[in-house]
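Saturday, quiet lab. Running sequence design on the structure tokens for the scaffold JK sent over.
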């Protein structure tokens, strides 16, 4: 019981301290493909884990994706506590190439978001446990930075038959 509480406390601290260290944590799956990270966000059940199993890449994170905004650009990282992940990660970090908000649909469609919509999408999928104005401001600052560094897209696809071919050209 103490272990569960301790892990929960560490998760809260990690999510709410990382924004002050040039990072944030997203509710997302993340794959490394050809040396670059691609983040897939969306609500629970949207298909984040399914996409990360269909696409030919190496898993960085599944459900809990830290992103660090360093001097060499944004990096997607494996979570600090592998037990939080649904599946074990295969890569510890990679330069972030894209953030992809996924939506289940009967049609396939990809659209790059405007800067304002990109920031909103990042914020909607950032994990925080604090109501502190300082934490919220730090997260907003990181989301604005990140939204200006990498493309953020809305990807509509059918969860029934996602395929690598649907994503060719979008994630390169």
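Result came back. Writing it out in full:
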């Amino acid at each position: 019981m103490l272990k569960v509480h301790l892990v929960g406390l560490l998760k809260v601290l990690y999510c709410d301290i990382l924004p002050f260290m040039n990072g944030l944590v997203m509710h997302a799956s993340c794959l490394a493909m050809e040396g670059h990270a691609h983040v897939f966000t969306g609500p629970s059940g949207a298909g984040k884990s399914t996409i990360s199993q269909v696409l030919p890449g190496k898993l960085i994170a599944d459900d809990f994706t830290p992103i660090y905004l360093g001097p060499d650009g944004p990096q997607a990282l494996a979570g600090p506590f592998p037990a939080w992940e649904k599946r074990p990660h295969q890569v510890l970090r990679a330069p972030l190439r894209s953030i992809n908000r996924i939506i289940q649909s009967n049609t396939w469609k990809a659209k790059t978001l405007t800067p304002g919509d990109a920031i909103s999408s990042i914020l909607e999928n950032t994990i925080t446990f604090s109501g502190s104005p300082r934490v919220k401001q730090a997260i907003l600052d990181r989301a604005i930075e990140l939204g200006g560094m990498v493309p953020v897209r809305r990807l509509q696809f059918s969860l029934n038959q996602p395929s690598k071919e649907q994503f060719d050209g979008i994630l390169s």
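Notes for JK: The first strand starts at residue 23 and ends at 26. Residues 2-167 form a domain with the Rossmann fold fold (CATH 3.40.50). Ask whether to fix the surface positions before the next round.
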